[in-house]
Structure formats: C-alpha cells, structure tokens
Fold each of these.
Amino acid sequence: MANYRRGRINDEMQKELSAALREVKDPRVSGAFISITAVEVTPDLKYAKVFYSSLNGDKKEIAKGLKSSAGYIRKLIATRMNLRMTPEFTFYEDHSIEHGAHISKLFNSIEYAPETDVEDKENDD
C-alpha cells in the first residue's frame, strides 16, 4: 500500500473521528471540548493512534471516557468509511498546542534593548 493512500486515510479518519465524537453520549467526552489533532494508521490498517487535545475538563477523566467509548467510536467509523478493516483506536493526549502557546509566550516576553556599547566603540574609532 502506498504512503499517499495511508495519508488520505489518516486525513479522512481525522475528519470522521471529529464528527463521531459529537455523537458520544459519555459525559466525560461530550462535556469536554475535544479536538482530534492527528491520526496515524498502521500500514496493515489494524491499529490507529489518535492524538487529541482538550480545552476544559479533567485530563484523566477524558482519557478514561475516550478509552471506554473506543468500541462505539469504532462502530461509527466502520459505518461511515468504506474500509476492509476498521482499526482499533488508541487515544493519546497531544501537548503540541500547549507547547506552542508556551513558546509563543516566551517569545513575546523577550524585550529588545539596543546595544549602545557597540555603537559607542565604533564611533570612537
């Protein structure tokens, strides 16, 4: 199977998972604003790593809710996508958005102060 096909499956799976999460009735999942950031399907399409981020809610409870509703989500994906095998989902919290916000905050906190010592030395010569 070519890599570009897996990439298309990853993208489509991400879209369908985002829509399927809205239908989950578990309050740990439906109460938190969860977004799917990436999906990585194995070459044999048996397993998929699903990376998610959430804005509110208890991180541990969200992880438990996603783990418990993985079978229901898999069933929804099986009906929506025309694949020979529907992968088993493993959910991982994605910290890249938080990390990017932290780096951005660090960059914004840097203050620019022009160096006058270098300019004074050049003028003395």
Note: The mean pLDDT is 85.
Amino acid sequence: MPMDFIRKENIRALKEWMARAARPVVLGHTHPDGDALGATAALALYLRSLGKDAACVFPDSPADNLRFILPESVPYFFQDKDADAAVRRIREADLVFLVDANAFSRIEGLQEAAAASPAPKVLMDHHLNPDLDSFGLVFSTPDISSASEVVFWVLKAIRPEEAHASEGASAIFKATEEAWPPEADMDAEQAIGEALLTGMTTDTNNFANSVFPSTFQMASELIAAGVDRDALLQKIYNSYRENRVRLMGYMQSEQLHILPGGTAYMILTRDIQRRFDMQEGESEGLVNVPLTIGKVKLSVLLKEDDGHFRVSVRSKKGTSAQRLAQQHFHGGGHENAAGGKLFIGEDIPAAEAAPAFVEQILKDFLG
C-alpha cells in the first residue's frame, strides 16, 4: 500500500533522533479529542518501550469519558492543572513531537516553549497546511483517516523490513529484539494497538468519515493482532452519563434549526450547558446528527466558551465544511469535517447575536 508521505530517509533520521534522545516529549492540541489522545499515547508508549523517559503534554485536560485512553505508564502534564510543570517538561525535552496538529499554534499557551526548544522537532499529522518550517521531520498527509493512522504507519515503517503483520501481536511494530528491547514490557504493544484503534475510531466517527483503504488495513491488522474492538466501542460510545443523553435529546428537539438550501445549525449556550451540568466532551458527535436528515448537507454546532464560541462543521460529500470554517470561523480542517472559533466582540457584538450571524453566513455560503 503506497505511503508516499513516509520517506525512507525520514524514517532513518527519525530512528537516529529517537536513539539519541533520553527525554522526548509528545505534544497534543488544545481540547484533546480521542485521536489526539490515542496517537500521543501510542507514540509515548512506543518511546518508553525503547527505554526513553517519554511524557505527554497538553494545554488542557481531556474529557472524563476519554480518560480511559491515557495509559498509567505514561506521565502526563496538563497546562490547565500545572502550567509550570507542563512548560518545564517541554524545556527539558531533547526530542519534541507534535501530533494531530499542523502547527505549534494549536497548542496555544504551550506554543512559545515548544517553538523555542532547541531539540529536534517532529510533526505527525493529517490536517491541511502543515507548518513545514518549524519541524526537522514531517510525516503528514490529509489523505488519511487520523493522526492515529499516521502514527500507526510510521511505527510500522520504523521496524525492520522483514517484519510482517502475520507474526502476531508481538510483531505489529517489531521484528527482532533489537527493534523491541527484551527488557521492555511486552504488553506495551497491545496498549499501543488499543490506543491507535481508539483514536482512529473516534476521528472517523466509527468509520463514517475520512475513511481510506489504508484505514481498513490498519484496523484489520490491529484486530488480527488481538486488539478487542468490541471492548473499545463499549468504552467510547456506551459509557456516557444520563445527562449527556438528555442534553443530546434537548438540543435536537429544541435547538436544531434547519434552513432553506440544506443547512442546519445548533447553538449550545452556557445556560444550556449549566442546565444539563454538561462536562467537557459530552457534546461530541452532536454536530453529525443533522446530517442523518436527507435534505441536510451542511451542519454547524456552536458551543459557547469564554469570550468565543467553539465551532464544529460537518458536511456531506460535495459541500465543503473546510471552506466554511476557513472563511468565517478562523479555522480549517478536512473537506467534510472542520472547526474554528467565533469571537464575541470581534466577529459578533454579543453572544446573543450568534444565531443571526450563522444564519446569514449559511445563506450566503450556499447561495
């Protein structure tokens, strides 16, 4: 299967950098989703299996329903919990990875420390317009399901060429004891596989978006190697609080607006969030629901935050979610799955102006 974004010379350089590093750090974007958590966890687990003191650093903490992705064997630093420790861990790193983000700007408050680090820097991502100038090595393509899939194929490329997936779980990412030290915890490979399959599953909405032939191959290899997909689905989709189910129902019955031309939007205000005691991550998947309606081809969800709305955009094939996010919400993403922000006081005078603003741009966008 062609993986044009993975070049042999870059893999050789990556292996050399990893061999020299003692304290690598793996960075993920703000408001981490399942893909960011899965991809960073898998990479950190792999580095630690090589005897490296690897850690993960994020601008803010993950949603409670996604914490199961975080392996206990990996140290985590969250800027919203201990800003000094998070920044210090970046400054101490001798190898820096940025995963599931196209630039250091996506890690917001950690951007300055990461950009200023003299350590070699590696980007692993699947978004458009990667910041090539800020990284010594780049493994990035938009023609792939997720950052977790990027990490999967990079780890496959690191192993010796004679390794084959048919060798079983202990050979997904290794072929010899030199590739995987004998003193390493052999359960680590299973944990890596679980993290990667979880990340890919969440970012594709369980194989509903951005799925490629390579995505199915990845899933097939991991399941064949022993990753329990059914158990992961239970954790991802069947472990929510009752409040989340009631919130989703309320938003669909009372806050869903369908406009002429095949667009839909919902606004999740602070009042609604308080009413349902909403926790971070509990609106995940809500933006996709209107697309189940035949006539709706573009869906927008606005979630009120401090001084702005976080915007999620989803679309059916033939309508560009990415273009809408880029043109009107200071954002971007993939052709059918994108996001951005709507700033209160800059884009709109007050939060109450959001419905009129969204209705107007949706009317103009689809003509």
Note: The first strand starts at residue 24 and ends at 27.
Amino acid sequence: MKKYVALLFAVAMMIFVVPTMEVKAAAPAAPKDAVQTVSIETGFRVQWSPVAGATQYFYSFSADDKTYTAESPTGSGGKENFVNVVNANIILPGTFYYVRVRSFNGAEYSPYVKVKVATAPKAPKNMKQTAADSKSVTLSWDASVGASGYLIRFGTTQAKAKDIQRITTTSCKLTGLEPDSKYYVAIYPIKKVTNDFYASQNFVDNPKVVTTAGPVSGLKLYDWDVKSNVVMVQWDNSVKYENGYQLVLYNAAGKKLKTYNISGRRSSMKAFSTKYVKNTPFQYRIRSYTTLNGTKFYGEWSAYSYAVPQANVTAVKVSNTSVKLKWSKVAGAGSYTIYKATKDGGKFTKVASTKKTAYTVKSLKSYRDYYFLVKANKVEMGGKSRKSNTLSTPNDINVYIYKYQDEVCVD
C-alpha cells in the first residue's frame, strides 16, 4: 500500500513540474491562381481563388518590384479575394506593376504571391486610312506609349465588328474586301501581361473605311458634234463612295492622248473638245477615284469603249433633182455609207456606200426637205472593224432644193 501511494505522489509531482505547451495555429496557404482580370488606363484588378481558413487578404504593389506600398486589406475589411487598384500612387497608362498578395487566418500570414500586371495604354492618335483599292484598305496610326501591340476590330458596322488579329506594327492592310464598300475599324493598343491576358481599354475607330469601286459600267459615246468637235460621253453612276472620275482617251493604236480628271460626286457625263479627236476615231476608258487625306486612290478601269465620228457633211446643188454631198475624211475609214430621211427625226434609210469623200444623190424633188447622214466604216480599232456610233443627236444635214436658185438651202 505504501508503494502504491508513493507512486501516485511521484506521478503527481511530474505533472506539476512539466511546463504547459502552447499549441500554435498553422499558417494559411498562399493564394492560388492569382491573375490580372481587368485593366484600365489608371488601374487594374487582381483576383485569386479563396483560401481555406483565411479570414482576410492583404496586398501591396510596386512599380519596380523593389519598393512596395504599405500593406492594405482588400475590400470588405479584407474579405474579398480580389483587389482593384485605381489611381493610387500615380498609376500610369501602359505601365507594368507588381502586386503582392497574402492570406491571413486571424493569427498567421501566408507567404506572398506576386503577380505582374499592367495598365491599359492610351488610345492611339492620328488614325487614318492611307490607301485603298477595290479589295483592300490600309490604315496607320501613331504608336501608343507602353503598347506591345494592337488589336484590330473589324466589321461592316460597329455592332457587327469582331476582333480579327493582333499586330505589333502601327499600320495594317485588310484584304479580301468587297469593292465600293464601307467598313468599321477600331484599333485597341494592348500590353501583353501573359499569353492569356492583354491590358487594354482605350481605342480609336473609324466608321467609314472604304474600298474603291470595281469597273465603271455603261460607258458610251452620247454625242459628237462634228462641226464644233464637242464630244460627250456618259456612264452609269452607281458608285457609292467616289469623289470623282478619271477619263483617258487613246488613239486607235492605243497611244494615250489626253486625261480628264472629273471632280465631284455623282458625275455621269463629260463633255470635251480636243484637237486629238477631230474627225479621228478614238478609244477611251474610265475609273472612279476616292480621295483619302488629299491623295486619290483609283478604282478598277472600265472596259474600253470605242468612238468613230460621223462625217462632217456639206451639200451643193447639182440640179433641181440632185445634190452633191461632201465630207471631211474620217481617219482610218475604209468606206462611207450615206443615209437619207424625209423628215426631221424620221427614219434614215441607206442611199449608197462609197470609198470616196463625196457622193451625188439623185432623184430628189424640189421644195422638199431631205436629211442626209454619212457614217464611216471599216475603222480598225481594238481588234475589230468598227463604224460610226449611233448618237443621241445625229450629225445630219437638212437640204432643201429651190428650182430657181443655184444654191440649196442647208441647215
């Protein structure tokens, strides 16, 4: 019994002399998946997955990864697992920063997690369209400070625009477009943070980037007054975004003779007079142009059209029933055909053909109106044999024979 009591006393003494051990709480895990999720010109957001057991999160940031700001809790007293850093300590656009984040469980802090972030660069300045053809447009802009590249957003309208490519240059050429069409283009400067995130907010856009037109259609000779040598050509005006047209004349062999620049929108006709085409066949073509920043960009050429003048006819009396028609030679003509009508605006019928530049018309009547027209034939041009064009106003001559006068009345 004495031994038993002594043992109890010894155990009690051991319990009394062993110091009390304090149990220390384990530090929480460091935040995981911390990434930048938002960028603006003067700030950024960093977000991470919630940490088990954490009651608060603290952050600080630095511009050089050396000197960090004083540590602060995130929102709601540190309970939010994200932080918005905006306009703090003069945050600059298009600049890298570093954010340190750690969790806290009420007793211990976790190790820091560091995230490299960036603010969005400022919008580019001086964006402009610098070139165009019927299938492409080219744009350029000033570099944005801090940008590592640019995102191109493109569509037929702003509502339909989509991100199409990222580039590192300050110009781009967009191809595969439709002729005579308008497009929306926006340029976003970006700063690469990771392969999955680019800091970007601001942009510059142009809602009217245009391509030039395809070939102009309907080009034809409308009138050619051979007496005054005034020529009028016309074409279909279906181009939507033109600022004018360029009309070029060529001789029958294809040598350029003269160029006319026709400014102003909605043009569909050009009148001109030039020595190069007096009694001379010519070929011609036209294209529209669009003016961008003072420079003309041309659409596609129309097909060639061909013009052969009608002859410039005069008449002298031969008898009370006949007149001799004379006309100026049409360059390159192999023959001529004479036509007659008996009333103004009436139907012309063929009288005869000749290789000469004169012909006597017989079996006429005195005191009666006759209308004569001479067309040139067999003019080689554009790989074909051509004849005088049919015009809106024919170059006919009105002849009236008086019995007792030597001259005929000619109008």
Note: The CA atoms of residues 231 and 332 lie 19 Å apart.
